[in-house]
Every structure is written in C-alpha cells, then in structure tokens.
Amino acid sequence: MSTNSNNAAIVEIAQTASKFASSIVLQADNKYIDVKSILGLFTTLVASQNYELHVHGADAENAKKAMSEVFAKHGLKFTVVEE
C-alpha cells in the first residue's frame, strides 16, 4: 500500500467514523485506537495487519456497516467483533 492510498484510507476512515455517535475502536495486537483520531490511525494503520473493529452505541449497526465498507474498499483486513 502506498503512502498516498494509506493517507486516503485514514482520512476516509476517520471521516466515516465521525458521522456516528457510537464508539468505534480499532484493535491491532495489544493497541486500541479510536478511529475518529487521525493521528492514532497514522501511527497504527498498515496494510499487512489484521484488525478488529469494536463498535458500541445507539447507531452501532449502521456504523459497523459503514466502517466495513470503508475498510474493504481500501483492502484492509478486519473482523467486526460482535459483543
């Protein structure tokens, strides 16, 4: 993944997440990143990583769907954790 496409992914992920009231947290290994934080994403997001998305809140179902679409669009590997 090139830096430019990674930047585009980060911006789109953060913008998409900020549309929702739900808490959306990305887990990578033992790190937890609020996906509304562009800085957190910049230091964490790499294409080869497998991520877990944890979504909690009133609009969690819509947030999961939207976030899944953005992650898939950018070729990122993830699973949505159902809790």
UniProtKB/TrEMBL annotation:
Q: Which GO terms describe its molecular function?
A: transferase activity
Which Gene3D superfamilies does the record match to this protein? HPr-like
Domain HPr stretches: 12-72
**Which residues are the signal sequence here?**
none
Q: Which InterPro entries is this protein grouped with?
A: HPr-like, HPr-like_sf
Nucleotide-binding is among the record's keywords: no
* Record keywords: Transferase
Q: Name one Pfam family in it.
A: PTS-HPr
Name it: Phosphotransferase system, phosphocarrier protein hpr
